[in-house]
From TrEMBL:
Protein name per Swiss-Prot or TrEMBL: Pyridoxamine 5'-phosphate oxidase putative domain-containing protein
InterPro entries associated with the record: Split_barrel_FMN-bd
Recorded coiled-coil stretches: none
Chain spans, region Disordered: 167-189
Annotated organism of origin: Rhodotorula toruloides
Segments crossing the lipid bilayer: none
Length: 295
């Protein structure tokens, strides 16, 4: 039953569009890196052609796919679909992908203001060039019934994203006639509980320490959720590691400078002289005790 194709067969496109969930798999280039699999829901996948697809990437606590797509020389991605009803089927799309950051020209061309797919928590579009398509049986996949989408991040406040609806309306108003076609409707809020702050907290790096969402910045800011560091040197070279450590080294220098000032003040108040006198007195007592024992 298994077969491979150089592009998506036209006969399978309707079936792909019917699926309620799919999975994306990626990994860093390092053999010691962590392989990642992420589920995707909502009606977020678009088939641009028989050799290209893209999906809307929603804000979440992880950003492995984005990190792997941004890693120099990487970009490898596999998308998997499987049938939970009807005849058994598994379908995989193999290829390479790139990240179109939110509010970039390419992003706005695919998701212009007013597009219903431009959901409040969207952080990027993942564009994939399909290089191979594989189908297999899926006999071991169980039947499952679709009940509904989890809309908590859209319809209801969610800490720490509870301000999403206020910052990014679910259905942004269309641009005015004088507006540019790529004008941002509502930029991410910089308030401590806003979307941009959440990205900086959670999306600055991958679990292997690779740079994550571009808008989150790298190295991670103070207070960000820290993850492993092992992948940075492999992907970006030793200089990237040194740049990251400079901030930490600067903190150490600052602490020692403060300690030096305190010690200097203490010595100026006679603290050093008192300690010296106590040490001399202790030495004399020890010498006297030794002399008494010898006598």
């Amino acid at each position: 039953m298994g077969a491979f194709y150089d592009q998506i067969p036209e006969s399978l496109i309707p079936w792909i569009k019917e699926q309620k969930v799919f999975w994306v798999a990626s990994a860093p280039l390092s053999a010691a890196g962590t392989v990642n699999v992420s589920p995707k829901g909502y009606d977020c996948l678009t088939i641009a052609s028989t050799t290209a697809v893209w999906y809307v990437d929603m804000t979440g606590s992880g950003n492995e796919t984005i990190s792997h797509m941004r890693e120099p020389g990487n970009g490898r991605l596999t998308i998997l679909f499987n049938a939970f009803e009807g005849p058994p089927r598994i379908l995989r799309l193999f290829g390479h992908a790139s990240i179109l950051p939110r509010d970039s020209a390419q992003f706005n061309a695919l998701l212009p203001p007013g597009d219903k797919r431009r959901l409040p928590g969207v952080r990027a579009v993942v564009w994939m060039e399909v290089e191979r398509v594989g189908t297999s049986c899926g006999y071991a996949v169980p039947f499952m019934e679709f009940v509904g989408e989890r809309c908590i991040s859209i319809e209801r406040p969610l800490h720490p994203l509870r301000t999403l609806r206020r910052i990014l309306p679910l259905h942004p108003p269309p641009p005015s006639p004088s507006s540019s076609p790529t004008q941002t409707v509502a930029p991410p809020s910089e308030n401590p509980k806003g979307l941009a702050a959440y990205w900086k907290l959670k999306n600055a790096e991958s679990v292997d320490g690779l740079p994550g969402l571009e808008a989150a910045g790298f190295p991670p800011e103070k207070g960000a959720i820290r993850k492993a560091r092992r992948g940075v040197r492999v992907a970006y070279g030793a200089e990237a590691v040194r740049r990251e450590r400079r901030g930490w080294n600067g903190s150490v220098v600052f602490v020692w400078a403060v300690v030096g000032v305190v010690v200097g003040w203490w010595a100026g108040q006679g603290g050093y002289e008192r300690v010296r006198e106590e040490l001399v007195d202790l030495a004399q007592q020890v010498a006297g005790a030794i002399g008494s024992s010898v006598a």
